[in-house]
Write a structure and sequence with these properties.
Largest sheet: 4 strands, antiparallel
Oligomer: single chain
CATH architecture: 6 Propeller
Number of helices: 1
Strand content: 35-45%
Number of domains: 1
Order of helices and strands: EHEEEEEEEEEE
Radius of gyration: 16 Å
Shape: globular
Length: 171
């Protein structure tokens, strides 16, 4: 399971519809839920960042999932782009948005992972007081972690490509 903010603005995250939860459904498919999205109390002007219907992706049972969101550059509605990483065998695949459509990829830097690895990703901070918006993707701040060849691997997203940033042996 992974939780991501649906807005770059903390005041929008802290209300109904502010977070999305990605999970593996009982049928093995990658799924998403947004808390109280259909609640009549939600702000009628709340802008959704992406379609709530995901592409059909079936994952191996108990596949790890990680996700993060970044602000869309120059978006007046403060919407986010979201990245979801999930393990499929010995590779980590990515489902992501840049704009309002879902896309998939299998980045080279995320291939050949250890069969029992988990995945962790970081969403950068946002606050209401003092106001600090979630930042757009930037080199070095969008990090994910997993195990490969017995080492902990840190990768960073640079211009829509994953680059290995470092490795720490675990023996």
């Amino acid at each position: 399971m992974a939780i991501v903010p649906m807005s770059a603005n903390f005041t929008r995250i802290a209300v109904k519809g502010g977070y999305a939860v990605f999970y593996q459904a009982p049928d093995g498919r990658l799924s998403v839920a947004i808390t109280d999205l259909n609640n009549p109390g939600i702000d009628p002007t709340y802008p959704l960042s992406w379609p709530t219907t995901l592409p059909s992706i079936t994952m191996p049972k108990l596949s790890p999932i990680a996700a993060f969101s970044v602000a869309r550059p120059s978006d007046a509605q403060q919407r986010v782009n979201t990245y979801v990483l999930y393990r499929d065998g010995l590779n980590i695949n990515m489902l992501y948005t840049v704009g309002s459509d879902w896309k998939t990829s299998q980045p080279a830097a995320l291939k050949g992972v250890d069969p029992d690895t988990g995945i962790a990703c970081l969403t950068m901070a946002t606050t209401a007081q003092p106001e600090r918006l979630l930042e757009p993707a930037s080199e070095g701040t969008n990090l994910c972690y997993f195990q490969k060849e017995g080492a902990l691997v840190e990768v960073k997203l640079v211009n829509e490509e994953w680059v290995v940033n470092g490795r720490v042996p675990l023996d």
